[in-house]
Amino acid sequence: MKWSEFSIHTTEEALEPVCNILHEAGASGVVIEDPKDLVKEWGDRFGEIYQLSPDDYPEEGVMIKAYFPVNSFLAETVDEIKESIKGLLDYDIDLGHHKIQLIEVDEEEWATAWKKYYKPIKVSSSITITPTWEEYQPSEGEMIIELDPGMAFGTGTHPTTVLCIQALDKLIQGGEEVIDVGTGSGVLSIAAAKLGAKKVMALDLDYVAVESAQLNVKLNDVQDVVSVKENNLLEGIEGTCDIVVANILAEVIVRFVQDAAAILKPNGAFITSGIIKRKKEDVRQALIDGGFTIEEVVEMEDWVAFVARRG
Ligand SMILES: C[S@@+](CC[C@H](N)C(=O)[O-])C[C@H]1O[C@@H](n2cnc3c(N)ncnc32)[C@H](O)[C@@H]1O
Questions:
Q1: Ligand 1: which atom is nearest the Cα of residue 156?
Q2: Could you report the per-residue pLDDT of 134-153, keeping only the tens digit for each?
Q3: Which of 114, 189, 250, 306 has a CA 20 to 30 Å removed from the CA of 287?
């Protein structure tokens, strides 16, 4: 079968919204080529050094490739994608020069393409994420999250996700109730459950993410702790919790700071990630205006995460 490869060279900041647009347009697989992966320390527990070829990567920014079946709707789909990507400029998202290319490829070329970039990776002192197709023997005390992100965001290796998992690892002592807003593949909810949370609610607006999270929750055998639900941010969610974690873009976070404050117990923690450095002050201000005290600010590559406490 013939497939069309849609590729766009853009910025780190635009990565997540562009991936969402591609998924929503029905992409049957999205590959991200980020030059930072070349300098990352990938695990080599079995003496296997993961060979990533610089030829596969752009020198700066990220290359996002999405695959669509070649059919009569293709031209419209591509036009819609281009329009939606242009629309991100209205949200002040830097697209870089966003050069777009469309080529035809064979099925075999893409079916396994993205898997070569995705390897077991230790993301916090106790958690290692491994793709479902990799053999991995954990050492004593090491917790494993097995993931098949499918079409949802959340391989677990993106800096914004890693910052959230590290914060969860520090905050969860056991028995907490956690809400994960924008769960994607479910990775943060699974991490929270494995770290000892008593109850986790995983929310996402996108049904593709909800399905992927449900699958991964079962795969990791945490379905008794984690419930997954299609929901817009915290709208209509009742009760209280100890931790809200959200790895969503800065402009979305500032929209629901008040709702997070309302649902958190006194002294509860709000972990927010997905914030590109130049929007750090907007989120800091929104957190302070929402009555939070900022406990920790952590950065990785171009990204920032806050751990804030409700008063
Ligand atoms: C950057 S991904 C994070 C995925 C995962 N939590 C992680 O850390 O890797 C953001 C997720 O938020 C979801 N999202 C965006 N806007 C949302 C909204 N208004 N309500 C719920 N989820 C939303 C997207 O569908 C996407 O799955």
A1: 9
A2: 788 888 888 999 987 665 55
A3: 189
Give residues with Cβ within 8 angstroms of 247, minimum separation 6.
Answer: 160, 161, 164, 182, 184, 188, 272, 273, 274
Does residue 159 have its Cβ closer than 6 Å to ligand 1? no
**In which residue ranges of the chain is CATH 3.40.50.150 found?**
121-310
- Using N-to-C axis directions, what is the helix angle for 207-219 and 187-195, rounded to 10°? 30
Residue nearest to atom 23 of ligand 1 (CA): 182
Q: Could you tell me which residues are beta bridge partners of residue 306?
A: 272, 297
Give the number of other CB atoms < 10 A from CB of residue 82. 15
Tokens at residue 67, please? Answer: 């695959």
pLDDT at 110: 60
CA of 140 to the centre of ligand 1 (A): 32
* Neighbour count for residue 13 (Cβ, 10 Å): 25
Nearest to 40 by CA among 135, 156, 169, 164: 156
The highest-level CATH class for domain 121-310 is alpha beta
Structure ipTM? 0.99
Residue 104 Cα to ligand 1 midpoint, Å, equals 30
Q: Which residues sit in the known binding site for S-adenosyl-L-methionine?
A: 161, 182, 204, 247
Region(s) of the chain under CATH 3.30.70.120: 2-115
Query: What mean pLDDT value characterizes the chain?
Result: 85
Ligand 1 centroid from CA 248, angstroms: 5
How many beta carbons lie within 10 A of that of residue 222, not counting itself? Answer: 20
Q: Which fold has domain 2-115?
A: Alpha-Beta Plaits (3.30.70)
Query: Ligand 1 in contact with 166 (CB < 6 A)?
Result: no
